[in-house]
């Protein structure tokens, strides 16, 4: 499929080749520019920026290979197809080593030209799409802003650690942005062009998480109809992020420890050792030192992952960052929803700063997204914010009849649990993590307070 406006440059000192090849390309729907020598070709490239070039390898004066080298020196990434005569195949091979996309021999067949152009243009379109998607991913997952001393200390430590191969442990409450930090560390490192693989260790059984991490061989268990590579193997050369590592089982802790020590593992049901080069970033909202003392987390694994610990401060401890964060999320969600919000009102901003943010940055993002969806541009007003943000104590202050101390405490506990479940969209394991509770204990509280 030809895109309107795509232009191809034909460079050849033979007018017949110029005309024949140009006519063929125009019949395929492309615009064609023509040059008779290398100097003219480079001038056209500088001023017209073609999407593809057909370049004669044998020309008087500036040879095709010299033109190709000049194109690459100018960091042009469009495909260059060399036009070769009989006896110049060796030069064509050399041109391929210099960065040419392909070559076509004289005399060329119209059907061959069409195929070469189609494949080259499709490759360019896929490359452009990948670049656009990559930019969108970077924009979506770039590190949210902050200017507080605690936040800047975390960033400084992360940037220093990014250049090393050491394992990093991110410590922080649920919603404090641990995955964003992990992605930022990956992007600051030499591995940024390799895979970033995120694995959430919560909510998966020991068997499922093991196969997710290490993969499995065909026939390893019922349903294993074919070999599957694990995330650690897929991430070879890049970064593997293990979120909520404090929740993995003791058996899997042992296998993970062996991998961190040896950088090798076996797939489930396999006997062959597989070596990989990955940077491990782990994260948890648990107190791992307490878990070690209680016997729920291996001490040797803790020391293995705690090489470079980085503490992410909760949002309530860096309220000065709330305005910049609110602006950041307002812009993001405005772009996504095609709404032209430009500011947060002073009244709304004061309400945001006055709130304690138990759900941290994730909760703030949800509040701003709701405001963008329900509000009217260009300003987010206080009435666009969630009621709990605006007046979290209103329900208690407006009661007509007093309650006993224990009744008030129970009602507050119930409200805290309901809010956590709402923020976690009903996910009880996630709600328990945000509250710092065991899931089983949260379920008992839900039953006690009649929370469905």
Q: Could you outline the blueprint of secondary structure elements for this entry?
A:
Layout: E1 7-11, H1 15-27, E2 31-35, H2 38-48, E3 52-56, H3 64-73, E4 80-84, H4 89-97, E5 102-105, H5 110-141, H6 149-162, E6 168-171, H7 178-188, E7 196-200, H8 206-214, E8 215-216, E9 228-229, H9 231-234, E10 239-243, H10 250-262, E11 264-265, E12 274-275, E13 279-284, H11 288-293, H12 299-305, E14 308-311, H13 322-337, E15 343-344, H14 346-354, H15 360-374, E16 379-380, H16 387-390, H17 394-397, H18 405-423, H19 428-435, H20 439-448
Parallel strand pairs: 1-2, 1-3, 3-4, 4-5, 6-13, 6-14, 7-10, 10-13, 15-16
Antiparallel strand pairs: 8-9, 11-12
Helix pairs in contact: 2-3, 6-7, 10-12, 13-15, 18-19, 19-20
Strand order of the largest sheet: 2-1-3-4-5
The total of helices stands at 20
- Helix/sheet category: alpha/beta
Range of strand content: 5-15%
Task: Give the termini distance in whole angstroms.
Answer: 55 Å
Regions with little confidence, pLDDT below 50 for 5+ residues: 393-400
Query: What does the largest sheet look like?
Result: 5 strands, parallel
CATH class categorisation of the largest domain: Alpha Beta
Mean pLDDT: 85
Number of domains: 3
Radius of gyration: 30 Å
Helix content: 40-55%
Query: What is the CATH H-level superfamily of the largest domain?
Result: P-loop containing nucleotide triphosphate hydrolases
CATH architecture grouping of the largest domain: 3-Layer(aba) Sandwich
Kindly identify the CATH topology of the largest domain: Rossmann fold
Count the E strands.
16
What's the shape?
globular
């Amino acid at each position: 499929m030809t895109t309107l406006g795509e232009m191809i440059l034909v460079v050849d000192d033979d007018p017949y080749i110029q005309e024949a090849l140009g006519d063929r390309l125009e019949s395929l729907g492309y615009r064609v520019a023509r040059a008779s020598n290398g100097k003219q070709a480079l001038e056209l490239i500088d001023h017209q920026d073609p999407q593809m070039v057909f370049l004669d390898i044998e020309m008087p004066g500036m040879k095709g290979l010299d033109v190709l080298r000049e194109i690459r020196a100018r960091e042009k990434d469009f495909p260059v197809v060399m036009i070769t005569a009989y006896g110049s195949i060796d030069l064509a091979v050399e041109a391929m080593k210099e960065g040419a996309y392909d070559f076509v021999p004289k005399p060329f067949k119209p059907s061959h030209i069409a195929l070469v152009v189609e494949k080259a243009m499709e490759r360019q379109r896929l490359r452009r799409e990948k670049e656009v998607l990559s930019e969108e991913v970077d924009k979506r997952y770039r590190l949210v802003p902050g200017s507080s001393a605690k936040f800047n200390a975390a960033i400084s430590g992360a940037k220093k650690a990014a250049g090393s191969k050491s394992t990093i442990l991110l410590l922080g409450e649920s919603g404090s942005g641990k995955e964003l930090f992990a992605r930022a560390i990956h992007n600051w490192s030499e591995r940024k062009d390799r895979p970033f693989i995120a694995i959430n260790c919560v909510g998966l059984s020991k068997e499922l998480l093991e196969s997710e991490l290490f993969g499995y061989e065909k026939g390893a268990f019922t349903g294993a109809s074919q070999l599957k590579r694990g995330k650690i193997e897929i991430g070879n050369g890049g970064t593997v992020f293990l979120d909520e590592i404090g929740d993995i089982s003791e058996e899997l802790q042992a296998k993970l420890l062996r991998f961190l020590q040896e950088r090798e593992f076996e797939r489930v049901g396999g006997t062959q050792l597989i070596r990989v080069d990955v940077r491990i970033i782990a994260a948890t909202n648990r107190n791992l030192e307490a878990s070690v003392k209680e016997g729920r987390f291996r001490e040797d694994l803790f020391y293995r992952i705690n090489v470079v610990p980085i503490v992410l401060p909760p949002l309530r401890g860096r309220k000065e960052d709330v305005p910049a964060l609110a602006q950041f999320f307002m812009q993001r969600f405005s772009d996504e929803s095609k709404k032209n919000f430009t500011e947060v009102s002073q009244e709304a901003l004061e309400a945001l700063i006055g709130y304690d943010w138990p759900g941290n940055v994730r909760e703030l993002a949800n509040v701003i997204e709701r405001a963008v969806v329900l509000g009217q541009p260009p300003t987010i007003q206080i009435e666009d914010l969630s009621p709990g943000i605006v007046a979290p104590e209103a329900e208690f202050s407006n009661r007509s009849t007093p309650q006993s101390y224990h009744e008030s405490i129970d009602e507050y506990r119930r409200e805290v649990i309901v809010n956590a479940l709402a923020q976690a969209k009903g996910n009880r394991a996630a709600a328990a993590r945000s509250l710092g509770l065991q899931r089983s204990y949260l379920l008992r509280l839900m039953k006690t307070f009649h929370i469905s």
